[in-house]
Design brief:
mainly alpha
Amino acid sequence: MNESQIDLAHTVALGSIDDEDHHAVQKMLDHEDPALREAFIIEIHRTREALSALATATAAQPPAGLRARLLAAINAEQPPVAS
């Protein structure tokens, strides 16, 4: 895979793909050779696994009382008025 294809695989793994990139991915998956297709899919899986490991390693508990503050803020909002 070339650098552009690796970057595209990372974009797919992050879930931040736009329409133009989506078309490039679809074209590659539909028309490229099977080995490139497999390497692309493996790169997506590896990236997702790395992101998952990073999220697990850096996870932190939210501050105590956050839920109560959020619910109070939501309840304080005025409901929309039907026109």
